[in-house]
């Protein structure tokens, strides 16, 4: 198992050379760039990725996945078709660069309210969950077929707050049943599960054995005092941390991933306001490294 981190390369951010040098000097094995800047799909397709390929051939840092978040479930048909076209280009560019995974998300037109009113029976007037699974099948079937043709796996982010129906075990089951494919799976990020109370995280991992195509990892911290004062509708009773600065047990999580057949990359994400920037990424890498058998 290797360690990666998410970043933007080029387009005003650091160069691929700077990124790879920093990654190597801080014990990372790989990077996961956004589909922008140097990794903009249009540019990769036009140039056959020559610049990226040339540099990667000179370093042992590899590109573990490409990030391409495109919302294919918005209500406006033209907007979601444009989003699908962007995702197809990202898959094509990943194929050109021999990147085996595109990390994306299922999308949603209604942020995290697609279940409708809290504590109401299923199919209440605001519940769009089944409708959106049908829309997912319609919009994503050609995407998954294209990914199969290009030999690129799709790993769906499990975050909910950005507007994403693939955010919990119930919805994972529904969307994976809607489009059965060896090229459609999930990206494991248990930081979301801690505050959503989908616990223990290890059980969620084991439930979907064989469907974790990426591990996009953060930690999370819950403040009982803030939760008591504000309830679940408040702010800052939970916040994301880099691995090692929160309340998740990464030894058991990594063990559950390995038992579930996952042996690819742990990709550090940094949304930790207490450890911002590159140092936060490095903290996460150091914490995860101790649990890897090949370390």
Q: Could you describe the 3D structure shown?
A:
- This protein is of the alpha/beta class.
- It has a single domain (2-289), classed as Divalent-metal-dependent TIM barrel enzymes (TIM Barrel, Alpha-Beta Barrel), CATH 3.20.20.
- The protein has helices spanning 16-25, 41-47, 50-56, 77-96, 129-150, 169-178, 191-196, 201-207, 224-230, 250-259, 277-289; strands spanning 2-7, 30-33, 62-63, 66-67, 101-104, 153-156, 184-188, 212-217, 219-222, 238-241, 265-268.
- The strands form 2 sheets. Strands 3-2-1-11-8-7-6-5-4 form a 9-stranded parallel sheet, with helices on one face.
- Helix 5 (129-150) links the parallel strand 5 (101-104) and strand 6 (153-156).
- Helix 2 (41-47) crosses helix 4, helix 5 packs across helix 6 and helix 8 (201-207) packs parallel to helix 10.
- The model has no long low-confidence stretch (mean pLDDT 96).
The top level CATH class name: Alpha Beta
Shape estimate: globular
The rounded distance between the terminal residues' Cα atoms is 9 Å
Question: In what order do the strands lie side by side in the largest sheet?
Answer: 3-2-1-11-8-7-6-5-4
| CATH fold type | TIM Barrel
